[in-house]
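Bumping with the actual sequence this time:
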Amino acid sequence: MTDPLWRPCSDHARSRDDPLAGTGSRGLHWLLVELSGPWGFSAFLDSPGTIDPQLGRALVRRAESAGMRVVAIRKPGRRQGAQRWRWAIADSRPGHESLMRGEVTNPQELLELPLDGSTGMPSMEPIVAVCTHGKHDRCCAVRGRYAAAAIAAHYPELTWECSHLGGDRFAATMILLPHGLYYGRVDSAVNPADLVALYLQGRVDDRFLRGRSSLPEAVQAAQHHARVHTGDDRLDGLVPLTVSANADEYVVVLGHEGHRVVVRLVEALSEPILSTCAARQPGRVRQFRLLDVHIEPA
């Protein structure tokens, strides 16, 4: 029986105003596989009606051993017809961003898929993946499905539902590939599709951006404060140059239009929180607080 005083983790996070910046988990290479049926707690291991768990386990083990993040995707809305086994491989390294796509007829063929994507076709269209993984966290089901549907109404070919991305308390969460841009609280945007429109223009909306998967969390947070300071919303407008750390303090230097933006941060732990809907014991999470930001000559 549900506790009548229970509230979703994303509601608590919004009440606390948990900072989004600097919360994107690491990911340089991605394997996305279409699993159009229902997902269990683990999309690849606990969804026997959609993919054989032994196959799913072997696929995840193979990709993760190659340093890849593995994500299940499916098209939003009611799913009809036979299962298709489409896949995509994304490279999110700065300066190397690329997306390869393909399809196999037998899911066992996924185990022979070259993980450099060489058997696929280069794609100039990005992937917009919104977490709707309700069996992992109920916030993702409620907030994520709304956000995915709202974006799909404008960009049906680009939009996918996806499995767990992390940061459940920031639902609805989204990742834009190949650049690896993590967004949070997407459902609270006036029009979630506007975030995608900006991405297609090479820009970001820093109000909802958690960070870029190719960058350390301290750099993600530093870019946020530098964007606020400079007003530059270009995707590649602030280039990481150096990062230095001393105990819990970081100095991040970013290149910007012939100058250097110097950002000083301090890392601290939050008060104990329940960071997911399923959490039973409060825990502390990392947060970055701004100490100083200023611009210097190059």
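The tokens above came from a reply further down the thread. Helices lie at 9-16, 53-65, 138-152, 193-200, 217-230.
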